[in-house]
Amino acid sequence: MGSSRSSLRGVPDGQQLLQETGCEPERSGRLGWFCLGLRSEDLEAELSENPIGDRIVGAFFQPGQETVDFPSFVRVLAHFRPTEKNWTRDGVQPEPANSRNRKLKFAFQLYDQDRDGKISRTELLQVLREMLGLQVTEEQLQSIAERAIQEADLDRDDAICFDEFRKSLEKVDIDHKMSVRFLE
Amino acid sequence: MAVLGPGPASFRFGSVLLILLILSGSSWTRDVPTGRNDTRPEPNRERDGQDRDPGTNATKHKKAFPVLELNYDYVRMPFEISLWILLALLMKLGFHIIPRISHVVPESCLLIFVGLLIGGVIKAIQEKAPVMDTKLFFLYLLPPIILDAGYFLPIRAFTENMGTILVFAVVGTLWNAFFIGGMMFAVCQIEAAAAAHVSLLSCLLFGSIISAVDPVAVLAVFEEIHINELLHILVFGESLLNDAVTVVLYHLFEEFSHADTVTVGDAFLGVVSFFVVSLGGILVGVIYGVLGAFTSRFTSHSRVIEPLFVFLYSYMAYLSAEVFHLSGIMSLIACGVVMRPYVEANISHKSYTTIKYFLKMWSSVSETLIFIFLGVSTVEGPHNWNWIFVVFTLVFCLLSRVLGVVGLTFIINKFRIVKLTKKDQFIVAYGGLRGAIAFSLGYLIHQDEGSKDTRGMFLTAIITVIFFTVFVQGMTIRPLVELLAVKKKKESKPSINEEIHTQFLDHLLTGIEDICGHYGHHHWKDKLNRFNKTYVKKWLIAGERSSEPQLISFYNKMEMKQAMMLVESGSAAKLPSVMAAAAAAPAAPADPAQTAEQQREPTPERMIPKISKTREAEIRRILRANLQNTRQRLRSYSRHDFFMDPFEDNMSEVRFRRQRVEMERRMSHYLTVPAKQQETPSVRKVWFEPEHKVYTYDKNERTRPSDSAALLDESNQRADGQSERQKPTRCLSDPGPDGDEEGSCFRPS
């Protein structure tokens, strides 16, 4: 991880990026070297031990792209800024990237790899398999997935849509959980 | 009282009066310090001795054989202790019977009030009341409360807010101590206070005693108002962690007040001592915690003593820390926290319940006794009412608390993700209650501290502050919480979704932090989890459970809870709905789980059996018996094929029936699926009479008088071959491999 600092000049559309994401490139100067264009292998090296590493990597890349440039990178990371409590929904400004809804949407998209708007049972099973690894049997995975869908699935379509996902997490403090402190 | 009518109330009052009288009587007869207590029974014994002595006394008279004797001294000590505890608990019971008062006044206030009454009565008969001496308090009354709190500490909330809690505990208490101490010294210089002889160090000592938030009082009051977890853990965590600061400050000032001069070196040593006390206490706690966890790995053959290990190791941690003047409270907390995840993986379910209830019981008794003694000691203790001193102490305590909280929050909020609002700050400041620890420490001040007056003055002020915080703040905090609409604790059912998603988010955040190169909270937590999984769990958890992921154990716990709920409610259900349910069960072909089941079924002719009434009753009875005795067997089901998990919130009777049917179906399927490696082998503990038939679906479905028993028998047979190479994993029940007892329960007679 380079620690080179970059300034707003070097970043294309720096001002617009700042407005959109609220991230100042100087603050995320540590990531400055990403300006050159990041490939998935670079990210994967960091996340080799992480069970859902490849999903995270995949979230940075738009479908079909081989590299990610700095603005896209920052856009993704902007989801993890701490939430501001005084943001009001006034309909004029687009919802900031770090609102609770957007954070949840980001997490939802990590589950929903085929982007059909629902977490199907197979997708859930895949996630569970990745997280739990080789220590559990197939039946256990099946039963857990089964139970999860039973609990969350309110419209009985055997999949978890975004609203159901959000509802099942209403007691979890997403603002706290999905925030990285230094991205102020 | 309007609810119950005059009868029980008067009876209760009568009994209370009676107990008071007996108690006073016992105090009157007690002369513990002076040792005059052996005078009365002596003549009795002497006389008997004379009688038996043959040749000494010419005028011996033959005494009639004493049918009824009074020998109180034999049982004096335990009798009085038991009587006190019994009285305290009766009081506690009484309060909850009066519906109106217990809503307004917190229990602690009522108990102090009772203590005051008792103290008054004892003083009226001019006897020496039992005062809460420091040894009794610190060695016997305090540890159960702290252990109860520490063992059930919500770890996630605690570690997430650790920084805030530490800042409040350390910096806040230091600020309080110095502010109050300094200000009181200034006050003492005022002419009208007539306390100019009090030195600065004495005032600082006083400040350090009174500044600490008390865990007992906080627990007692906050338990009843159910505020949200964040505030609760902030105030409570602060009250626990400031013990280190209090201990250091107290010893520091006490030492200094005997010395003549204070140098910078001494102050520096004080700082060093703080680190030694707190970190040393934690280290001691961790060592004992690891020992306890390690011991629990081998207790599978003596389940009955498992809870004792937990208690004794924790108590030893506390005492060992106190030996070296380290922070006993922190040691106790560390021991409980470290021990808990491993011990819970190892012990049986009954032991877990035992631990939970014993801890709650002891802490409840301790708390009650502490408050009553506080009341009694108030009446008894050396008092020196100095208006100015007391009033100013009170004012400065409140002031310093508010200033401290506001100032520290301002700094802390720069570092927090979720900021503390003004409401939060108010509750944190208002929840800074003082309690019995302050009183005991005050009592501990040596007599030669200036003069007797000083000690009396300090004690009076301490007691006044305690009373004020417990009574006024304790009583008003509930309406204030309502008024300010502070978020309350959410009663939520454990949800598998939450668990899955929380873990997922943990991984996600760890990944993001890795990408950013930012070693944050999640990074370290992930590292700790990895370390835990690869090294620690292997050593401290018995059997195959050492490699069980957290999600699986969570899931199993949920399944077990559901099964238990099923049994408990199913036993009250009626029979006529059986047919409806049995009809309903096969009539749900659109059920996704059933299709899934059919996909997984090896042979297509397995069908859902139609349950007859007798079989239903049979199943119910056997399930009830089984589930009460070997929960482990049920756990073995939950590891495998639970096709459909109808986890529904509103459990109606029909659904219960359905679930019962489902469970039966699962049991049968379990038999047909070859047992996997992680299968818990406790099935072998199920002993059945061999004359039961083997259960298969294809054969006649008519009369199956003991089908479930047969199910279990076959599972027994199947598991037999593998029972040797499987070690018993976490046992959820059974006092031990007592085969006879188990077998007799299962015999369906």
Quick summary:
Chain A has helices at about 15-20, 40-45, 55-60, 70-75, 100-110, 120-130, 140-150, 160-170, 175, and strands at about 40, 65-70, 120, 160. Chain A has about 180 residues and is mainly alpha-helical. In chain A, α3 (about 55-60) crosses α5 (about 100-110) and α6 (about 120-130) crosses α7 (about 140-150).
Total helices of chain A: the number is 9
- Topology-level CATH name of one domain in chain B: Na+/H+ antiporter like fold
- Strand order in the sheet with the most strands of chain A: 1-2
Tell me, rounded to a whole number, the average pLDDT of chain A: 70
| Count of β-strands of chain A | 4
State the major sheet of chain A: 2 strands, antiparallel
- Category by helix and strand content of chain B: mainly alpha
Q: What gyration radius of chain A follows from the Cα positions, in whole Å?
A: 18 Å
- Determine the N-to-C terminus distance of chain A: 20 Å
- The low-confidence parts of chain A are 1-11, 25-30, 32-36
| Continuous helix count of chain B | 29
Give the overall shape of chain A, derived from the CA principal axes.
globular
Most extensive interface, residues per chain?
A-B, 55 and 55 residues
Report the span from N to C terminus of chain B: 49 Å
- CATH superfamily membership of the largest domain in chain A, which one? EF-hand
Strand content of chain B: under 5%
Low-confidence stretches of chain B: 1-11, 28-58, 574-609, 630-653, 674-749
CATH class of the largest domain in chain A: Mainly Alpha
SSE sequence of chain A, one letter per element: HEHHEHHEHHEHH
Q: Which structural category do the helix and sheet elements of chain A fall into?
A: mainly alpha
